[in-house]
Amino acid sequence: MRRTLVAVMAMAVITPVALAACGKDDDKGANAWMSTPSAGASASAGADSSREESATVPISLAVTPATGKTDVPVSAEIGFKLAGGKVTTVTMKDSAGKAVAGTLREDGSAWVPSAPLKTKQKYTASVVATADDGSTKTAATSFTTMGKPGKKTGTGLYLFDDRTYGVAMPVVVEFSPGVKKADRAAVQKRMFVTTTPAQPGVWSWTPNGTQAYYRGPEFWKSGTELKVRIAVGGLPTGGGRYGDRDRAATAKIGRSFEMKVDNRTKKMTVLQDGKTIKTMPVSLGKKGTPSSSGVMVVMEKKEATVFDTTDTDGADGYVTDIEFAQRLTWSGQYIHSAPWSVGDQGRRNVSHGCVNVAPGNARWLFDRTLIGDPVTVKGTGDKLSYGNGWTPWDKPWSEFIKGSALPVPANLK
User: Where do transmembrane segments lie in this chain (predicted)?
Assistant: First the structure.
C-alpha cells in the first residue's frame, strides 16, 4: 500500500519531513530521553592531589574557559593546554560549593561535565597535571555561564532506554533546523557512543544536516550494549542557536535477523544468525508505484493500523485496515499482511510500493522482528533515496564515512 509520513516516534521537538507513499495513520509512539551517561574515559572529580609541586620538571598547564570569562555556554568543557605531563585530577564546583561530575575525553584534551551547567551561575575548576617523576602542576579558573538562549535547535534521539534492537539499528539523531556544514564538527564532538564489546563506528551527516547517523563497518555484534549521550544541551549550533537539551539512552542489540527480498524471484528469504530459516512469496510495488531497492531497517511495528491516502490521492485514494505492518521508509513503504494479493504473491507485483505477504507469513515475521532488523530489497525499478528512512546501511562504508564532519581515523578508512 502507498502511504504518507507518520512519525515512528514522537520527538520532543521535531518530526521528520513528510513524503508521499503507501498509506497513512495518525498514531504516534512516545520516545524516551534518559539520564546522561559518561562522555569518555573516566577521570576523578573532587579528589585532592597528594603530591607537592616541583620546579625540577617543567610542566606547562593552562585551562579554559579563562578566569573571569562571562556568558559562557552551559555546554562548557574544561579544556587543557598541557606539556610535560598528563591531567590526573579535575575538580569543579558550582557557586554553592557543590561538586560537578564529569569525565575526561578519551584523547585527554578536555574534561566534560556529565550534564549541562546551570544558567547564570559561577563555576570554579581546579586541574592537576602530573609528570612522569611524580611532580605536579595545578591550574585553576572561574567563569560565569550565560542566561537562557533566545533561539534553540530542536533535537531528537531515535533510541529507547533498556530496549533491545536489531543488529542494523543505527544511532539516529535529528536536528531542527538542520546544522550547517561549518557548525557540524563542533556538534559532532559532543555526540558520544560507547559500545560493549568495543566496536568501531563513525558519525555521518545527511546533506541537509537534519540527521546524523552512527554505525560501524559491519552490523553490530549480537549482545552489544549501546550507550549514547548526545551532549548538545546549551551547545552553540550556529546562527545564534543553542542545542535544546542533552539526549541519552542505553540499549542492547539482539540476535541477528535479516530479511532479503528479491524482485526477480518475488520471494523473501529470512536468515537468523546467518542461517536461512524461512522463505515466503511476496508481491512488490507495481510499475507505477515501485518498491525501493536498497538496505533498510524496520523502524516501526503496528499490529493493526489504517492506511489512508485520501489526503494525497484525492478521489483515487483509499482507506484500508492493515495488520502486522512494519515500516521501512518515511515515504510509507511497509512489510504487511495483504490477504487480497495472496494469489499474486510470488508471481507479479500489484502493491503501491509495500512488500505484501500472506497473513500467516506477516504474523510469523511480526512475532520475530525487532526495530533495527535489516531488510534488503533488490531488483526493483526504484532506488532508495538516502534519508528516506534509517538508511545509513544503504551506502558502502567508503561513502558513508565521507559524511563525517571530523577526520576519520586512518584505521577506519
Answer: none
Q: Which residues are catalytic?
A: 336, 354
Which tens digits make up the pLDDT trace of 116-133? 999 999 999 999 999 999
Establish if 222 belongs to a structural domain: yes
Q: Distance between CA atoms of 144 and 121, rounded to whole angstroms?
A: 5
Domain span at 134:
44-145
The total domain count for the chain is 3
Locate 334 and state its grid cell.
Answer: 511497509
Judged against a pLDDT cut of 80, whether residue 16 lies above it is answered with no
How large is the C-alpha radius of gyration of the chain? Answer: 25
Q: Which of 327, 340, 335, 337 is nearest to 360 (CA)?
A: 337
How sure is the predictor about 320, in pLDDT bands with cuts at 50, 70 and 90?
A: confident
Nearest of 248, 249, 253, 296 to residue 273 by alpha carbon: 253
Q: Using CA atoms, how far apart are residues 291 and 134, in angstroms rounded to an integer?
A: 65
Q: What CATH number does residue 183 fall under?
A: 2.60.40.3710
Per-residue pLDDT at 294 exceeds 80: yes
Q: What distance in Å separates the CA atoms of residue 174 and residue 164, rounded to the nearest whole number?
A: 21
DSSP string, 206-228: -TTSSEEEEE-SSPPPTT-EEEE
pTM of the model: 0.84
- Distance from C-alpha of 274 to C-alpha of 371, rounded to nearest angstrom: 18
Same-domain status, 112 and 155: no
The residues, ordered by sequence, that sit 6+ positions from 42 with a Cβ below 8 Å of its Cβ are: 103, 104
CB-CB neighbours of 278 under 10 Å: 14
